[in-house]
Structures are given as structure tokens and as C-alpha cells.
Design goal:
Number of strands: 0
Strand content: under 5%
Helix content: over 70%
CATH architecture of the largest domain: Up-down Bundle
CATH topology of the largest domain: Growth Hormone, Chain: A
Shape: globular
């Protein structure tokens, strides 16, 4: 492997990165438009969230076959197909006069991103020098993390001062430019023209993802549609079981599941899934909470995520540099502590949440995520041999999209369920509390990381002591008692 990247390789990574950037940009920008779209098209919260969930679903269906596509087709041809699909989806949304057409456009965009997204990490894994691998993976995470820094603000400005359609209009030339760069800079790799596509495996994984997402998306209607929800979960789990069994017994599987023989890869993958659930959940919860409960305009709802998204994007390559020099443990431990403390404080100060406090706590949360995600992906891939890294990347990207879809679906389902029968303000306020409790429960699953117990304990204690001077004297004893109890329960659960 060469000791440095060529300009052509860097431009190829840039082209694929622009695709990923635009995919996440639109996703986070359209989250801001949900209240506007609900009013314009007369749709519910549970339906409008399919603008995000449906997009993630299409990506989740296509990303699993990325390793097969990489082996079977030239990269530049795949990239052009992805650019064409993304552009068509954008055009459909620009001119959509019905919510159904708007949703179809988002699904087509998801198909394009699903083809292009794994390319960036595959190029990095194949062509980056080992001593710069952490940095380059961090730069890859920076590309996808920078979009949330711009997306909400961008979406808020377009919605408030122009129209939500300009979100798609502005992205279209960027996709055309990325396709142009990719066509001239993507390398020609050796392909296997004789490898067969296993249609049954693809159908099985598609059924699994659609059914599971449908099940999670309709949790708010489980009382009225119990049979439907149960059928979705049964079909999803059964299809996933069939897919797994088939991959282990056919000659040319879509994904080589030997990757899960490496336990460290499995644990890191699970950790990334839990992180993705809460991260995308926050992206839906906070803009909705700020607009409906705190009565802020769409622009301010977008800006509330801006500082956190910026610091998350900046710390992705910084965390990669720390990994290259000192190893992965230190940045991951620090990141886990930051993300947990932020979620804990969201619950702790829930009754007194302000716009500024939401911004500050999300800033802390995003700082932690910036340190965790890229480094965890690098660690996960490092446990796999080179011949399985494309499969590992496909699995990682797939499960990230699935868990993100589950996170947004559960968040929307909780909000929609609580909103039923009461006014929108009270429903959103109460629903947000239950969502944060869900985030806290999910964050505890980060115990898949090893040797974090004592560090988290110390950080929580220090964090509590730091906040003590700012607590109101009237409720200080009560709040400190609650803090001590929660910390003790958490530490006890963590150790066990």
C-alpha cells in the first residue's frame, strides 16, 4: 500500500463524500420542515416522519448488496447510476404537489445514496496508508457529520424565507458536480463478471427491513392495529432468519457472514447501532420540541442543532488523529462519557429546558458522538481480514441505516402516541420526556464497550459537582438526592 494518497484518490473520496453529505443534508433539513409539511399536506406526525424513515429504509435495502456490486461492477458506473437516481428523486420532490409524490422522490434519493454511500469507506479502507487510516476514517465521518451542522439551519432558512422546495433545488447542482468528479477520478478495479446475484437473498433482506421499519413506525397505533404490528415483526424476524441461514449455505452469498465470527467486530457494530438510534432520534426530537413547545420559528429550530453538529463534525477527524497516535480507548471513553452526561442532563433539567440549554446539551452530546463513531468504525474494521472488509463495511452501513430508521420511527411513534387525545403542545412536551427516557435506556447499552465503568463513574461524579453551584437552593437537596440515586443505579447496572 502506498504511503500517501494521490490527488485522484482524494478527489474520488471527495466525490463519494459529497454524495453522503447531500444525503444527510436533505435528511436533517427536511426534519425542520415537518410542521410545515404537516400543515400544507394535512398529514400526521407518524406519516410525515416517513420522509426520513423511508429514505433510510431504501438505503438499508440497497447497502447490503454493496459488497456484491463492488465485486461485479466498475465503481464509476455504479457512481453514475447513483447520481442519476439521486437527481431524479430531487426533481420529483421539486415539482411534487402531493405528499405521496414527495415521499416517492425521497425513496428514489435513498436508492441513490444507498448505492454511493459505501464507496467512500471502501476507497478509504483500500487505499489509505495504515498510519493515516484513523485520520481518513475520521475525515469520512466528518463529511457525513458536517451535513447535520448545515442541514437544520439550511432547512430552516429555506422554509422560513423561501419554500421547502429550495432544499432540493440547491442540492441538485452539487449532485451533478459530484457525479462529474467521480466519473473521471474513480479507479477501475478488477471485477468478477461471472458472479451471480442471489435474488432470493435480496428479497429476504428487503422484506426484513420493510417489515421491521413498518412495525416500529406503527407502534403508536399498536392498540388499534395490534395484529398488523405483530405480523410486521414476525415477517421481519422470519425474513432476517431466512436471509442469515441462506448466506451460510450458498456458494456466492450477498454478504459473507463470517465477519460475525470476530466478536470484537460484532460488539463495536452493536454499539454503533445504539448510538445511531439516539443520534437520529435527537435530530427529529429537538427541532420538533423547539418549534411546538418552546414556540421558536423554523430557523431557530434548525440553529439549535448547529453548534453541536459543527463540533461533532470537527471532532471526527480529531478523534481519528488521537486514535492514530494513542489508540482508540481514550477518545471512545471520553465520547461515551460526554454523550451519556448530555442525555442525563436533558432528563435532569427537563422541566426547565430552554432554547439555550437545549443547544448547550446537544453540543456536549455531539462532541461525544464525534469522538465515538469514526473511531468505533475504524476499530470494528481493523478486526477483519482485508478480504472481508467490504462485507464488514456493507453490514456496518446497513445496520446504521436500519438503527437510524428505528430510532426516528420510535421517536415519532412515542410523540404521536402521546399527542393523541390532547392538544399538540402538551402532547409534544410529555412525549419528549418519554423519548428522553428511551434515549437513556438505549445509551446504557454502550456497556458493549469494555473497561469504561470506573471512568464513567468518575466523570459523572465530577459532572455533578460542577453543576452543584448552579442548582437552585430551593430544590438543591431534592435534585442532589435524585442525581446520586440515578448515578448509583447506573453504575450498579453498568457493572452487572
Amino acid at each position: 500500500m502506498e504511503e500517501k494518497l494521490t490527488m485522484k484518490q482524494l478527489l474520488a473520496i471527495l466525490a463519494a463524500g459529497l454524495f453522503s453529505f447531500c444525503g444527510v443534508l436533505i435528511e436533517t433539513a427536511t426534519n425542520i420542515t415537518f410542521p410545515t409539511l404537516m400543515n400544507e399536506f394535512q398529514v400526521s406526525t407518524s406519516l410525515v416522519q416517513w420522509m426520513t424513515t423511508g429514505n433510510l429504509l431504501m438505503m438499508g435495502i440497497l447497502i447490503p448488496i454493496s459488497s456484491y456490486l463492488k465485486r461485479r461492477f466498475q465503481t464509476k458506473k455504479l457512481f453514475l447510476v447513483a447520481g442519476f437516481l439521486f437527481s431524479i428523486g430531487l426533481i420529483v420532490d421539486i415539482f411534487a404537489q402531493q405528499f405521496t409524490l414527495l415521499l416517492i422522490g425521497r425513496l428514489i434519493q435513498g436508492a441513490g445514496v444507498g448505492v454511493a454511500l459505501p464507496m467512500m469507506y471502501n476507497i478509504i479502507l483500500e487505499e489509505s496508508p495504515q498510519r493515516f487510516l484513523g485520520l481518513m476514517m475520521g475525515c469520512g465521518s466528518f463529511v457525513t457529520a458536517a451535513a447535520p451542522a448545515i442541514g437544520p439551519t439550511f432547512g430552516g432558512i429555506m422554509t422560513q424565507y423561501f419554500t421547502w422546495r429550495y432544499i432540493f433545488i440547491c442540492v441538485l447542482p452539487v449532485i451533478v458536480l459530484a457525479s462529474f468528479i467521480g466519473y473521471f477520478c474513480m479507479s477501475e478495479q478488477i471485477i468478477n463478471k461471472h458472479e451471480k446475484f442471489d435474488l432470493l437473498s435480496f428479497i429476504a433482506v428487503a422484506f426484513a427491513f420493510v417489515a421491521l421499519i413498518m412495525g416500529f413506525s406503527n407502534l403508536n397505533q399498536v392498540v388499534d392495529h395490534l395484529v398488523f404490528v405483530l405480523c410486521c415483526f414476525i415477517i421481519g424476524i422470519s425474513s432476517l432468519y431466512y436471509f442469515t441461514k441462506r448466506q451460510l449455505h450458498i456458494k456466492n452469498p450477498l454478504i459473507h457472514l463470517d465477519i460475525f465470527n470476530h466478536k470484537s467486530f460484532t460488539f463495536h457494530t452493536l454499539a454503533i447501532m445504539f448510538l445511531q438510534m439516539t443520534t437520529l432520534g435527537y435530530g427529529l426530537l429537538l427541532p420538533t420540541f423547539v418549534q411546538i413547545v418552546l414556540k421558536q420559528p423554523a430557523t431557530d429550530a434548525g440553529v439549535v442543532l448547529l453548534p453541536g453538529a459543527i463540533v461533532g463534525a470537527v471532532f471526527a477527524p480529531v478523534g481519528g488523529l488521537i486514535l492514530d497516535r494513542f489508540g482508540a480507548k481514550k477518545p471512545i471513553i471520553l465520547g461515551v462519557c460526554c454523550s451519556f452526561i448530555a442525555t442525563f442532563c436533558f432528563l435532569f433539567f427537563f422541566e426547565n429546558l430552554t432554547y439555550q440549554l437545549c443547544m448547550m446539551l446537544y453540543f456536549i452530546y455531539s462532541l461525544g458522538i464525534g469522538l465515538i463513531v469514526g473511531n468505533t468504525m475504524t476499530c470494528a474494521m481493523s478486526y477483519l481480514p482485508i478480504n472481508l472488509q467490504a462485507d464488514g463495511n456493507a453490514v456496518l452501513q446497513t445496520l446504521m441505516q436500519l438503527s437510524g430508521g428505528i430510532g426516528t420511527s420510535i421517536t415519532a411513534a412515542i410523540l404521536a402516541f402521546v399527542q393523541q387525545g390532547i392538544n399538540l403542545y402538551d402532547g409534544t412536551n410529555r412525549g419528549a420526556l418519554f423519548v428522553l427516557i428511551f434515549f437513556m435506556l438505549v445509551s446504557q447499552q454502550l456497556k458493549f464497550f469494555s473497561n469504561l465503568n470506573l471512568t464513567i463513574h468518575r466523570v459523572l461524579i465530577l459532572g455533578r459537582e460542577a453543576f452543584t453551584p448552579f442548582l437552585p437552593r430551593k430544590n438543591e437537596k431534592k435534585r442532589l438526592f435524585l442525581a446520586n440515586s440515578c448515578i448509583d443505579i447506573f453504575i450498579e447496572n453498568w457493572y452487572t
